[in-house]
Protein 1
Amino acid sequence: MTLVMLVAALLALLAAVGAGLLARMDGATLPAALLRAGVAFGGSLTLITALLALGISALM
């Protein structure tokens, strides 16, 4: 279970880095790019965690 949560956090981090880089390349300031990266991290981690909880509850 710990490994699954670690993978979820790494996927969310990858999404955040991608969103931050894309925002920066689009001309956003550094604080705005960091804000978009934070939103992407929070959103993707929430979605992955909800899907994991749904999958675990379906198996039990």
Protein 2
Amino acid sequence: MENLSQNQSKIFKGAGWILGTLLAIVTDLVVYSLSDSLPAAVSAALPVLFFAGFSLEKKFQAENKQNDTKKTKMMISSLLFGFIIFVAIYIVLHP
């Protein structure tokens, strides 16, 4: 019987960065469609690329541990809440 700590992650290195890039592209398109401003869209997408890519890559490459679903749900809900607040503030302040 194999121990869980000896199992390797089945996700290849760089998958988190690829998913972060895809999320940044979606964020870029959403902000650009709302604002018609390329600098605003790029400045909104870059933090998403770096933070989402880094955190997803770290999560994927961590050894197989018991994942805490409460922390994962909290991270997803905080990212969603931040995006909703960003869009709401932009809509209110956009002329």
Protein 3
Amino acid sequence: MRGRVHGRLPGGVRRVSLWRGESVLLRGFQASDWEYFQRFEENSEDARSVYRVVPPRSAEGHRRETEELAAKPVDEEEFALAVESLSGKETVGAISTFGVDRRAGHFRYGVAIDRAHRHRGYATEAVGIVLDYMFLERRFHKCVAEVYAFNRTSLAFHGRLGFVREGLLREHEFFRGARQDVVVLGLLAAEHRHGGGPG
């Protein structure tokens, strides 16, 4: 059945939209989200942590790019969504899936939360929602994540989600003027803790 489903399942479990958690809503990007992208890109540390530092762009450039993103057809397995806080009704981050391999049954993901909105459980809940969707609805077997070896916060975050360290890519990325090792982490569908609390 498409769309939001209400009511109760056997055992008294309330059924609501998969994309809505206790503190965040994952939704498609809107043209009005351009200010989020501009704000994120202007913080060099944030930009570097998820992609790379780029020269400043105009507000019009951000508007046009966000309009194009908002108008893209929905891909059911490789997508980018806004993370919106339910309390403030504002865009606080983004989450995406990529590197999908249907034959092998695995995918990758990335999440970014504004510095001003971190340590509130938003990332944990957003990632949990996406994992539920990819494992329970799309029948994937494994999620793979790559984290800089020096990023202890992110490594601990993935550990709380149940990810297991699977390997090390030596001097695999270039970050802030130096070659960096990257830790490869994996989570199997059977290891995913559905509906986990904030972390």
